[in-house]
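Researcher: Please translate sequence to structure tokens.
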Amino acid sequence: MKKIMGKTKDSRENIAIRLVRFMQLAFLGESFRKKDLENEFGVGDRTIQRDLKALRAHGFEFETKNGITHATALGGAF
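Model: Translation complete:
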């Protein structure tokens, strides 16, 4: 597998797929359980947290209450 900046191409593609999924949830204003996404993508909590942090920097908002995260896209997103 070809490495790009220390990560495999598959790894970078997986990150992109997760981020697109989170953006989709935000644009649709949907809620989700982080554990469900961890299982869907085969990643841990820290990876999900890192992905959400990256998107927050671009105008997305994720608020968790009682284990359910609500996603929204605010102004300035990409």
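Researcher: Any highlights?
Model: The chain has three helices and five strands.
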